[in-house]
Amino acid sequence: MKFPKFELMNENNEIVSHNDLLGQYTVLFFYPRDNTPTCTQQACMFRDIKDTLKSLNAEVYGISGDSAKKHTNFINKHDLNFSLLVDEDYQLSEQLDVYKLKKVFGKESKGIVRTTFILDEQNEIVKRFDQVKVKNHMDEVVEAIKIAQA
After folding, report:
1. Which of 5, 59, 95, 112 is least surrounded, with the fewest CB atoms within 10 Å of its CB?
2. pTM (two decimals)
3. Distance CA 138, CA 149 (A)
4. Which CATH class for the 7-149 domain?
């Protein structure tokens, strides 16, 4: 299945589109919010496997509803080595069915459910991970890319 066409702003207020992803494998991870414990852990884990992803001709982007300014602060605070994309209106998140009603600490509200997509060089979705558990996720991502490239 083809990943939808999109144009989102990154932390530097530059437009990143589906066309920028062509020619390489891409990991797009949707996460609820910058600077929350699990989201920080996940982002730092992607930071730490960046060289492994690069060796697999794969780029990584994080996507949340946070602003470019919040993304910049998050990147600087945790030395992240990849771009974060802004989906403030949740248009792409809704299109991909990752913006849903969820329960956090007994309270229901709409938000992004932690989801990762792996795209091939033509922006075809080769793997989708729903309701991601961060602990072993990096191993799952690397393995899925290797399988897709085999």
Report:
1. 5
2. 0.94
3. 17
4. alpha beta
Dist CA 128 CA 144 (whole Å): 10
Q: What is the model's pLDDT at position 109?
A: 85
Q: State whether the Cα torsion 9-38-133-104 is positive or negative.
A: negative
Other beta carbons within 10 Å of 125: 15
Q: How far apart are the first and last CA of the chain?
A: 19
Q: What's the chain's length in residues? A: 150
Alpha-carbon gap, residue 43 to 41, rounded angstroms: 6
pLDDT at 108: 86
Nearest to 116 by CA among 19, 55, 49: 49
Structure token digits, residue 134 = 């961060």
What confidence score (pLDDT) does residue 106 get?
Answer: 81
- In the prediction, which pLDDT does 8 show? 98
Which residues, listed in sequence order, are joined to residue 85 by a DSSP beta bridge? 10, 63
pLDDT digit string, tens, across residues 97-113: 999 988 777 888 899 99
Q: CA 53, CA 3: separation in Å to the nearest integer? A: 20
Residues of the chain with confidence (pLDDT) below 70: none
Residues classed as catalytic: 39
Residue whose C-alpha is closest to residue 132's, from 29, 5, 6, 25: 29
